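Rotation project, supervised by the postdoc (A.L.). Task for the rotation student: set up a whole-complex structure prediction and record inputs and outputs verbatim in this book. Inputs entered:
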Amino acid sequence: MKFAATVPPHVRPRTSVTRVMGEVLLALVPATAAWVWFFGPGLLYNMAIAAGVALACEAGALALRGRAVLPQLQDLSALVTAILLAFCLPPLTPWWITATGAAFAILFAKQLYGGLGYNPFNPAMAGYVVVLISFPEAMTRWLPPTGATLGAWETLRFTLTGMLPGNLGWDAVTGATPLDDLRTQLSLARTVGEIRGGELYGLLGGRGWESISAFVALGGAYLLWRRIIRWHIPVAVLLGVFVPAAFFWLINPGAYPPPTFHLVSGATMLCAFFIATDPVSAATSRTGRLVYGFAIGVLIFIIRSWGGYPDGVAFAVLLMNMAVPAIDHFTRPRTYGHAG
Amino acid sequence: MSRARLWHFHGGLKLDSRTARPASEPLLEIPVPPRLVLPLSQHVGQQAEAVVSPGERVLRGQPIARPSGYVAAKVHASSSGTVVAIEDHPVPHPSGLAAPCIIIETDGLDEPWGGYEPLQDYCTLDGVELRARVRAAGVVGLGGAAFPTAVKLGAGAGLKMLILNGAECEPYICCDEVLLKERPEEVLAGAQVLLRALEIDRCCIAIEEDKPLARQALEAAIAAAGETRIEVVSVPAIYPEGGERQLIKVLTGEEVPARGLPPDIGYLCHNVGTAAAVARAVLGGEPLISRIVTVTGGGVARPRNLQVRLGTPIAALVAACGGYTDEARHLLMGGAMMGFPLPDDSVPVVKATNCVVVASGEDIQPRAPAMPCIRCGECAEVCPAQLLPQQLYWHAHAGELDRLDEYHLFDCIECGCCDVVCPSQLPLTQYFRYAKTELWARDRDRARSDLARDRFESRRARIEAEQETRRRRLEEKTRAANAARGDEDARKAMIDEALERVQARRDDDRADDDK
Ligand code: SF4
Ligand code: SF4
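Outputs recorded:
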């Protein structure tokens, strides 16, 4: 009897890129729900626009490069980029800003480098930084977590036209994020204690924000449990934020918020579990990931405390993306049986 | 002697064991087939030389091929009959090529040769004599690599411990488990002989913790014999723990140097099946003519373990297990992780045949198309050699052979762990195997051109040296001639000089032509 050949190992891979990306998307569902609860449906519109543009750009680029379009779209990586980008944008973002970010992320940060697996920078963060620099004002217009938001229909109209309902001005609708507010107020010589008494703040961080962070962390725990990500980067990022934050807070609690505030504010949790863990642009060895994550955390703290932007996540990640080849080089594991 | 702790080796995988069914069946000895096909080369090292010729009658256990070098083993007739041919026949080898085999038509009498005496008490022989008996019996490692056992036993002084490897971690293989369950005394006796042959008194037998029955049987045998030098250790069931480098790490926490062997750090590993074969050979006077083979997979009706004469065609094994099912798609020798495919079932069982997997389409699914590497690093997490498969893949893909060396490609044990976890479905192991052959080929080419260059350069140096001596000789003669000018001989000297010059020029021309 004759048999068909096959090559060892004959056991097939247990997972796929599609599954990895799919689990990431699934893990973001609770955080998305919490977000909509606090800040209204703007996120969903942003997600839809970012996803549409990202997929279209990915398909177009793949077609231009003569690749099989459908199988590669199914890897869901463009979708993950789009969703993460949407998570970073304020709920009231006109569609062209979202579209610019998504298009840049896919076309420039990903496909120009050769597509999935070849991009040195995190595409979502690259896209976000482009719109942050291009549309600085729009990027600071967040909604207050008080429920006094625009309705679904009005939000959609704003997203599509960039116009607020006639009777409302920006001041009536939007506010700063807690991180932003804290910066401004600190520069007015108020103390952290006084500032955090305001209605923008909750138990640990900003109202709403801290809950969303909790749900993001829950999603992260799910990814850890499913072994989609390993613990090294999340723990290192959180430590990287926590350690310097605790140090400065202990020295001068009036001028520096407590470390827990940093952990649950802005995109810290999202960064720790979903952004810095993007495998393609992260360091690869265990030690490398600890270094990479910790440095991102420290950079986040530095940019928040003394830099020009209220939240430093995107810059911290992109800066460390640049350092990845060096980190990988210096943290190569010792091969079995080879001396130190 | 009690063990405080076990260590971990890096990486590895928990694989779903598929051995429950075959391991629960009793061992079955199958009849001698009408034709035995015994390859002359059954392991690494030199091919054996046939000492019989076609037409000759041979008896069970009679040597039919002798080792032609140090790293080699005898081949014995595995039953009585007539040698009908010594010719090329398909053999189980990854290359798929045919190789020289001795083919015996059996006579059903299974008449013993009687050239090897059983031994009542192994303690009457010393290490050297015991090793000689092992060597004469053609015993090789039965774990799959088939390295001649006597060569390993010559490891020399300074050994701390003998390790018997019962950590079968391939998901389909259970021949050692069944051996331990059914014939623990044989393994124990083998361990005792090996200890004496090595002149040490410490042995550790590692059994995976998901095989409690095997462990209990062995422990009972040890207790009954009152043997205190031998300890059984349960090790976690993690693939590829059966690799000796991994097992040594788990048991001792020490690492075998990359370019070294276990004896360099005081350990010697043998498979438990090898130990049993040593016992049969040394005590029973039975050379290695049969072994236990696991026959399993969705393509065979009744998976089980068989005691098989070497040289039996795989088809006979499958028949003894109830034949093929409709699901039979692939035939493998060795396990599902490291085994290789066989093109057809006419190939014989050899000393290295620990397992035959008749895989169904469900056992081995087609590979999904490969995606680009997403640098997830999972491959590095599971690599027991602590390599960076992802980097190796990158450089192999780009054909950067020098970088492969730098990333220790040759430390890859081809265990396949990286493949199994790669979400991008990259056939990493295949790449590494291919890259190794490329590197070997390059080194061979390089050695060849180095040799050619050396030859060319030494020849040039020789020619230059010759010219130099000639020139000097000429100078001296000229000087002598000048001094003698005016003498009667002056003219003669000048003629000599001219003649020399002509001769020299002619030599030079010839040397140039040679170039
Ligand atoms: S096949 Fe080689 S590279 Fe892959 S896990 Fe095994 S030893 Fe490591
Ligand atoms: S497991 Fe596959 S995708 Fe992940 S780093 Fe290794 S080679 Fe790349």
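Student's summary: Chain A is about 60% helix and 0% strand.
Supervisor addendum: Chain A touches chain B at residues 1-17, 19-20, 71-72, 75, 77, 114-118, 230, 279-282, 284-286, 289, 332-338 (CB under 8 Å).
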